[in-house]
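Input set for joint prediction.
Command: fold jointly, output tokens.
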Amino acid sequence: MGITERKEREKAEMRDLILQAASDLFVERGYEQTSIRTIADKIEYSPATIYLYFKDKQELFHAIMDKAFEVLLHNFKSVEKIAEPISRMRALSEVYMKFAYAHPALYDLMFIMTKPMDHVEHAEDWDCGFQAFNFLLEIVEESIEAKLVNFKNAHLGALTVWSHLHGLIALHIRGRLLMIPEEMHEVLISESVDSMIELIQIKK
Amino acid sequence: MGITERKEREKAEMRDLILQAASDLFVERGYEQTSIRTIADKIEYSPATIYLYFKDKQELFHAIMDKAFEVLLHNFKSVEKIAEPISRMRALSEVYMKFAYAHPALYDLMFIMTKPMDHVEHAEDWDCGFQAFNFLLEIVEESIEAKLVNFKNAHLGALTVWSHLHGLIALHIRGRLLMIPEEMHEVLISESVDSMIELIQIKK
Amino acid sequence: MGITERKEREKAEMRDLILQAASDLFVERGYEQTSIRTIADKIEYSPATIYLYFKDKQELFHAIMDKAFEVLLHNFKSVEKIAEPISRMRALSEVYMKFAYAHPALYDLMFIMTKPMDHVEHAEDWDCGFQAFNFLLEIVEESIEAKLVNFKNAHLGALTVWSHLHGLIALHIRGRLLMIPEEMHEVLISESVDSMIELIQIKK
Amino acid sequence: MGITERKEREKAEMRDLILQAASDLFVERGYEQTSIRTIADKIEYSPATIYLYFKDKQELFHAIMDKAFEVLLHNFKSVEKIAEPISRMRALSEVYMKFAYAHPALYDLMFIMTKPMDHVEHAEDWDCGFQAFNFLLEIVEESIEAKLVNFKNAHLGALTVWSHLHGLIALHIRGRLLMIPEEMHEVLISESVDSMIELIQIKK
DNA sequence: CATGAATGAGAGTTCATTCAT
DNA sequence: GATGAATGAACTCTCATTCAT
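tokens >
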């Protein structure tokens, strides 16, 4: 250990520095407005330097997405210990929504933007997406088995829950909730999530 | 009437010509690939001419959005005659989904893209969105009154239903359903819509 | 006539202006060192302007080549009136060599450089080359018929004469005659041309 | 001998390693596509290392040229034993043409490209060129003395023969023989070489 | 001796937009 | 009303080269 290790750490730090700067800028101004030059300026390095750490702009933004997924997945883990499936689903939804509220630009990148996905030609390149989806899928499976919800199959259930959550966030982030007074947004969204959890349960 | 009127009519026709060309190109090739130049070429006018009818690219695309909303609203009208609210909601959902499948690029522009909305500073600039939302809102109101669904209030119900539909489409259009085998998408989405209509109803 | 005509003339003049500037720069510094920006600077227009007249850098340089061929062919014409084939060939050679000496950079572009020919995928795109070659070909044909030279066929004769002339110029232009004292170059080259004309003739 | 010697040997070996890699790449992909980085990658050293052995890219390519000349000169040697000058000249021409056909990229570097010669400021820097030329020069001298050819002087004869051979190859390599059907190229070029040898001889 | 890291300089190209005519 | 001509401001990316370590 020693030199090699330090070098590697430094390299990783530099990657992170770029990633962070790119992330910030991109959160501030969006993908299109975030040029390699802007990023370079922000970290006070030359544009060429960025190409030492990332093949091109897409790879850079794909990396931001990956990091974001890591955070999301990490947050998801906190929910694993909840045994009861419906409670787990409620908790998962909350974690998901919190993440979206806390990092709207990242959410945008992960689930809305076109660009970083152009890179993902084969489904395998998006296994972070898979992992995240599996969290939900398993909960639905368990819930079906325990006869707590009545979806025809787990995929249908997971898709229904997810698309609802995504729809709420996506409409919010992309400014399509103008027909609802802004001060109601947060409450309404939160209530909608709760609603959904109630609705899917089998009434006894 | 006379000269002034004719001039205005001609002006409107020209606007429409540009709009149609822009719309076609945009639907064919996407926003990025639709430059002012391409549009001008298509209608065989000069790029400068376009600026006589639209302030800038954003306004132009906002106008395309408006036209698309007109179509959507027109489609919505076919549903008005259905008296029973739940059936009407089911029909409305179908119309909405069909529109999205038929014109994904337009749907994208209306409900996902950032660009055309940057233009909408005051809520009033988006009254087409309001109108569309009202269709749903009224249905939910009626359904609540008739005790067919049990949402706390109409806005909550409408938001819940809409965000679910939007979520399905948005995930689909922007390629985020990789974790589900592609051949299942259509069926699953359709089933999810049906599911939702069932779930929200008060079980007797 | 009038406006349209004037506009066209102005357009042609602008094209020529660019062509001339590009030509000059390229003569001074070579193809690689002649960037679109340098050309733009020289004529005090913006780089983008150049793209209004030429699709890309290659087309621009192809156009320079075309113009150069026009000059060469025009010079060739002065020789047509000479009836006797051998004299005509001698005159043609002289014209060719003079052109090469007068415009070495253009000669380079026409007959040595790689870049402008990448553009010429189909033989038809280089019909100026064909025309020039035909001048020589016809002379050789006549000479063979008149039993003044004894080449097996006209193509062989034309190729032999041309490649010799080209070889002289090419070695000279690209600085490969270092093994011969520089002050001898001109005389030697000129004598070599004369030599050739003598050598190919059938001795009586 | 000892340490110093070993060091020198190692240094020379490293130079050769770089040279070989550069040469291979250059032959495969051309000058433009052969960057310092590519070469470094190929030998699995860092780009900076190359600068320890060569001042800059030009010097490196000059060195490749030198090595190529060594091969050409070596091939030339096989001809030395032929006593009769005309036969020797014919053999030399063949060797020259064969080399050009076998290593067009190297031929290009040696006799056409501009880059490596920018480096040659003083004639002495190109003594490989001199040596090669001398082979031909001597043959012509002998031929003149033996009254087999009638050039005014040896330089004129050598230049005439060489420029013809070079012209053939140069036009071929740089794609300027479009006016002759491609399938005729090889035969015609070969016949042109034969022709020349015949033409220069004094008819008895 | 070797190199990892960094960069300055520059390449070609595109596009929304303006304005004199 | 329409436009031809022009442009400023970007853009991504590449490469030979340097230098502290």
